[in-house]
Amino acid sequence: MSKQITVGLAGNPNAGKTTVFNALTGARQHVGNYPGVTVEQKEGFCEHRDYEIRIVDLPGTYSLTAYSMEELIARDFVVEEKPDVIVDVVDAANLERNLYLTTQFIELDQPTVVALNMIDVAEHTGKKINHERLSALFGIPMVPMAASKRRGMEALLDTIVKVAETGEAPQVHPRFGTELEEHIGEMEMLVAERGLLTHLPARWIAIKLLENDSQVRELVEESSPDAVGILAATDAARAHLARVIGDDAEVAVADHRYGFASGAVRQALHYDQVERMDWSDAVDRILVNRVLGLPIFVLMMWAMFEMVFRFGNAPMAGIESAFEALGNAVAALVPDGELESLVVDGIISGVGGVLIFVPNIVLLFVGISLLEDSGYMARAAFVVDRIMHHVGLHGKSFIPMLIGFGCTVPAVMATRTLDTRRDRIVTILIVPLMSCGARLPVYILLAGAFFPAAIAGKVIFSIYALGVLMAMAMALLFRSTVLTGETTPFVMELPPYRMPTLSGVAIHVWERAWQYVKKAGTVILAFAIVMWFLMSYPKPPAAVVEGLPDTQAAHYSLEYSAAGRLGRALEPALKPLGFNWQIGTALIAGFGAKEVVVSTLGTAYSLGETGEKTSDLRTALQNDPSLSPLVAYTFMVFVLLYLPCLATTVIIWRETGSWKWPLFAVGYTTVLAYVVSLIVYQGGMFLGYG
Known about the structure:
This protein is 64% helix and 8% strand.
């Protein structure tokens, strides 16, 4: 007796599904109704390689939402009957529109085969489809065929049998961008923890809840005693998404599905003749052009950093003046002594030295948010993908790198979207080389102090560019040594262009800027106090400093302190880089948080002053004869490359499940920072820039 395979035959209306059904089953078919509804159900049978294949012709549908009877029937058949194979019939001449349904079958994690029907029509219009490439990008088999001419029928049946025998689920799953993925992950975890609807994929349930799918909400209400809490969490997530992205979650999910399909088609479809383009395609022809795409991306990044520096100067100066006035006022009210020094030199100089950069941080996040919300960041990944392939990665790895411009912690977490552990580890290791927002205050401080305003923005841009170049170089090294293997194909998700909403940008900027301010009020405040104590104690014997001029006494006391001794101990190793002991002390403190580099310098130079206190750290740095533009640039390079902050180190451990990788990241970045900084400084000295 032959074995049986059950196939669900699905597809968009007018995709040729009926023709495929008739070609496969011939006269062996019958018509009835689906149980409980009057919608027609067609079933048929055919035999192939000792298998009897039962084919159920599902109603033609554009999606698997809960809006129409046809959609519900198609989805319920897949969910409840769990056929051995889903065959999704796609009109090869209209790939993007038809593949939207395919993405939803993939989300259900069912063994799926795509029948690229009417391939002859597509070829007649000049379209050449690389079905093997498309198959790799979607992670499911795709069979080119023309059912009306019985072309490809044997290959389709062979593929059905092979997939049924292996039971292989889709190898790729569409992703929905940082904001949506964060909430999908939270809902997925909630669904898994509560043991909801265990016969269904937890990720699919999470997506459907965020889409506000009425049927899935009903299933949750029926299956969970805590349904009220789960649905309340769902509604809260949907409300947050609506505020941030300016659209309903369902619309955003649909956009990303279309973006997934669009990105795949762009890589697998070629034309023998000029196609008719809409305005989005016309813009893409420029922004993702092989020749123009990369220069345009570099130009946009350069313009963003120029904006950050130039427009941030005026409000930064205002905040700086306010903290200087605050410091002078406190100094006038509090009697001279340790308390005054702690408050003025430690807290106000330390925390104030970080908070003055809030305008720059806000401007940076405004720029990043505009690029993300408009849909350009996905295009940037597409452009960079061609370069990433040369270093053993692909454009999907560039997304966490872009997120790293804001903060390294969520950037490391964003590597969860990568398909293989090897790609995740490589990307995690190079993400800390991207300049996070915490490093920006260091760059702005040094660039503003040692370079003319006309070139300061360009200096900062060069540091960001160096970070990207070093990340590429290290990725190539890791992929050719400790983490070798094939580069996996993936779909470039190209969401539609959108006009960024004021509310969306405002929420993004507020959330990120508030994290920065909150860190200044907690972590940096604590570090500022700790560093003040380390720089103030122990005190030198009174007999030693007695009779010394005030300036010499202040500097001697600072060097005698615990921090000063540590800095002095490091000075021989840092001297080849042009660094003094104050810089060494600041670099050590920077392991806690990179912003602390600035606050530590502020405390060090404030404690080194005598007479009237000053909060103008730039002036203090400029007055230090051991510092110069070359030393400042080398300092920026070191801050760019050296060890990740404590929070990033912990999150690397959590994401990799081992202390081996965070310790490796700390070690290799520190060695890299030293070597590159040595080359920069000694090279500059050799060229006469010292």
